[in-house]
Amino acid sequence: MGRILAIDFGKVKTGIAVTDELQLIASGLETVATKDLITFLKNYTATEQVELFVVGEPKQMNNEPSESEALIIPFLEKLTKAFPKIPIERVDERFTSKMAFQTMIDSGLSKKKRKNKALLDEISATLILQSYLYSK
């Protein structure tokens, strides 16, 4: 069984989370520069079996796509081209950034560490992946 890899796509940085091989536990993997994302994914999939990409779907409160969806659509096209055999599923990512920030507070991180946007993106990707796993 392959891993499931979640992507919290951002204009500058993208958070990545992954499951274990049994697809039971979601863990933050890394935050990468978005411009390097496809290269990172190619390197990762060269050593790890990934059977599904889960990509966050930003929505507004009225269920309409958020403005950042316009940036994600071209990325999804690149992802499909680069990995034609790995399916992509979308997961509503509303509130993941707020939940990730609250997780940082609850875990006792200092104010300085909570300003680390890369960590926030990685936690957000983990929450997206957990949401997907719960829905299965």
Automatic annotation (TrEMBL):
Gene3D superfamilies: YqgF/RNase H-like domain (3.30.420.140). SMART domains: YqgFc. It is found in: Cytoplasm. Residues 2-100 form the YqgF/RNase H-like domain. It holds the Pfam family RuvX. One of its GO terms (cellular component) is cytosol. Keywords: Cytoplasm, Hydrolase, Nuclease, Ribosome biogenesis. The keyword Cytoplasm applies. It is an enzyme of class 3 (hydrolase). CDD domains: YqgF (cd16964). The keyword Glycosyltransferase does not apply. GO terms for molecular function: hydrolase activity, acting on ester bonds; nuclease activity. Its EC number is 3.1.-.-. Could be a nuclease involved in processing of the 5'-end of pre-16S rRNA. Belongs to the YqgF HJR family. This is Putative pre-16S rRNA nuclease. It comes from Xanthomarina gelatinilytica.
